[in-house]
């Protein structure tokens, strides 16, 4: 056995044990339905309940021409990413980029309702 094969064995063993551990420790789904059985309406309603009550917002949350004070030449916004900081649980942040015809710039906006954003 050469040294490469000897190095692979512990790595493969560790990887295999890790996969087995994750598979064995993940909780079984109470609501799991076998693939060949139909899902009843009550189960569908229970699964969907947390996602009901949302409202369609027809306007873009961030317009393509955001008119950021001091950066009015930037347009074509892209790559919005929403995140929170643990120290500010009531505030959401959105980073995004915009183009000014020569290059891109990054911006961050804040919101308390995920609809109205301030720069």
Describe what you observe in this structure.
- The chain is α+β, with helices and mostly antiparallel strands.
- It has a domain at 62-119.
- The protein has helices spanning 3-25, 41-48; strands spanning 75-85, 88-99, 104-111.
- A three-stranded antiparallel β-sheet has the order 1-2-3, with no helix packed on it.
- A hairpin with a 2-residue loop joins strand 1 (75-85) and strand 2.
- The longest helix is centred in the N-terminal third of the chain and has 23 residues, at 3-25.
Describe this protein with a few key phrases.
extended, 119 residues, single chain, three-stranded antiparallel β-sheet, alpha+beta, 26% helix
Strand content: 25-35%
- Number of strand segments: 3
Contiguous helical run count: 2
Q: Would you tell me the structural class of the helices and strands?
A: alpha+beta
Give the mean pLDDT: 81
